[in-house]
Amino acid sequence: MNRLSPVALAIMLTLTTMSTGSIEFEDIQKPEDSSNGFAVDGNDTLNRTNTFPFDILFDDYHEYYEVVSELQKFANDYPHIVEFYYLTDIIPAGQTWQGNEIVGVKISDNVANEPDFYDDPDEETFFIVGNHHAREWMTVVTPLYFVYFLTHFYGMEPTDNDGDGLINEDMIDGVDNDGDGEQGGRVDEYGRALFDGIDNDGDGIIDEGIDEDPSEARVTHLINNREIWIVPILNPDGYMYDREDPSRFW
Asked: Where's the Peptidase M14 domain (predicted)?
């Protein structure tokens, strides 16, 4: 059976099993907060409901079991492109040093018809992880946000996401892909987006080198032609250990 980058994955999982101390998971009460995580000012005219409606879910840190539940929900809601995995199943111990499990999802087309941990030789593999070390709480929501982004826009028709009356679909490549006269963000010689301080779509918001209108077609093409593995919490032992007591530096 084909495996996903077996050497690299085994090394990462082995490193993750090394830990110290003991844990007793305690429920952390999430404070009531109506904020959606974005400052409101006169320049923020973007209708986030049409662009990234899941932004409101990212105004606080996520607990380990919340992440597990979210990933399982993605697999249930999008079974044609999302497969949920207990990655610790492929190591001899079957769990981390502290007895936890490392979970993740594979996002690609046709996952429902593939063997477990299948590595398609015809598709490149992306591996995105968060919380490789302890106290990296912010890195957990970054790969989780990517899961929301991919599943939300997959298969969607070209949409006027930013409400400016145009379907720009400009991508970060410095090329006017849709012929509307706007260059899809300024890039350097390596194709990386640069901040140009220009309001590319004329809606009054500085776009920071990109358009606010993501390309649904490009998201769909990415999923149909790549294998994307996302592991928001690579080190669950350390994540839960220092979340219980912020004075712990491990």
From this structure: 60-250
